[in-house]
Amino acid sequence: TTLMNDQHEDHGSTPAAWTAVVIITLAFTLGTVALILANWPLFWAGVALVFVGAAVGKVMALMGLGKKPASA
Length: 72
What we know:
The chain contains 3 helices and no strands. By secondary structure, it is mainly α.
């Protein structure tokens, strides 16, 4: 069990992961509201924002704000 705890100590709780999750959650919320209002441009903006959130998370991880690689 020690090995399992070492591998999953932070469960991905990093600034990069949280930023990506917040942006993507806002994107889904925006898309949902847009569907309710039948506002297609706003819906597609929400779809695009999902990809922006993923890209921002990846860039932040590459900048060192993501999960550190497991040491051997």
